[in-house]
Amino acid sequence: MSRILTGIQSSGEPHLGNVLGAMLPAIEMSKYNESFFFIADLHALTTIKDKELLKKNTLTTAAAWLACGLNTETNILYKQSDIPQVTELMWYLNCLTPYPMLANAHSFKDKSEQLSDINAGLFTYPVLMAADIILYDAEIVPVGKDQMQHLEITRDIANKFNYLFGDTFIIPEAKIDDVNMIIPGTDGRKMSKSYNNTINIFSDEKSLKKQIMGIVTDSKNLEDPKDPKTCNIFQLYKLIASESQTQDLITKYQKGGYGYGHAKNELFELIIHKYEAIRKQFKILVENPRDVEIELEKGAQKAQKVANSVLKKVKANLGLM
Ligand code: ADP
Ligand code: TRP
């Protein structure tokens, strides 16, 4: 049993990519490990400057974790900003982090090319992420491939601290998602809020249907046989469907007389059916935000205990107490 930890930014309503690529695999791991899962609302502040939106995203992200079946009796679900010790640790780590390491980070370079608001939070983002991880003695951090460099930065900073001030932190390992688990979006690129190509499985049926109807396809006629391998609808369908459902759809594609509109409807029905319980639970939670807050408060209390004991050791080793 290891201690696993991961965070998801509250930058929007969780989509199918988040659920299949991050939440469900992490929840599976949580059954055999001690898990810390948190909502990275401080990181979300680097891009979101709208109070109501941030609150709503935090609620929907927490509700998604809970609706997907995270057991909060045996695991810890909390909100990053509820443990302010993380920002204190970040300062100590800032003082050990070489400027060029941050200036050369891919994600900072990418974001500073794409965004108009290039703030210092985007620049020091990896240091806060390092603090998120090492404050809780995390051993394994399940993340997407895009986060690999942030994990290397975390390890570098933690190693440097241990070298300069004596053994203090556990050096975490990344657990990178299987390449096969990159969920494609409605346009065939990686599903991502920033590409506007998501399928929001928690939204109402009408909006969900609209997103599914927006899946990009080629312009083959209804009568034509179609190639499932190159079809975005099929790529999503097979991730969710059973073997036999997948096989049936392949047959329909290859036979012809089956249009993309039909396939989209079939995908819609499948999602509604497969995620019926999760969608229902999500709706109940979002309509009862106090219940979600209570879960987060309970999680914060547990996380706080670990954070305090690690931070005490850090301050003693730095010569601050
Ligand atoms: P987004 O790209 O929509 O902003 P995030 O970066 O907030 O998503 O991702 C949160 C978590 O969900 C991360 O662990 C990430 O690896 C995972 N994730 C996001 N999109 C996908 C996807 N298309 N396929 C697999 N995993 C994904
Ligand atoms: N940067 C991560 C992402 O965008 C979210 C995150 C913040 C995180 N802190 C973390 C992930 C700590 C793992 C561990 O996906």
Brief digest:
With 321 residues, this protein is mainly alpha-helical. The chain is 56% helix and 8% strand. It has two domains: 3-182 and 289-318, Rossmann fold (3-Layer(aba) Sandwich); 202-274, Tyrosyl-Transfer RNA Synthetase (Orthogonal Bundle), CATH 1.10.240.10.
Write a structural description:
The strands form 2 sheets. The protein has a 3-stranded parallel β-sheet with strand order 1-2-3. A two-stranded parallel sheet has the order 4-5. The chain is elongated and about 75 Å long. Helix 10 (232-240) runs parallel beside helix 12 (260-274). It is 56% helix and 8% strand. It is built from 14 helices and 5 strands. It has 321 residues and is mainly alpha-helical. It folds into 2 domains: 3-182 and 289-318, 3-Layer(aba) Sandwich (Rossmann fold); 202-274, Orthogonal Bundle (Tyrosyl-Transfer RNA Synthetase), CATH 1.10.240. Helix 1 links the parallel strand 1 and strand 2. Residues 5-7, 9, 40, 43, 129, 132-133, 141, 143, 147, 150 line the site of tryptophan (TRP). Adenosine-5'-diphosphate is lined by residues 8-9, 11, 17-18, 21-22, 143-144, 177, 181-183, 190-194.
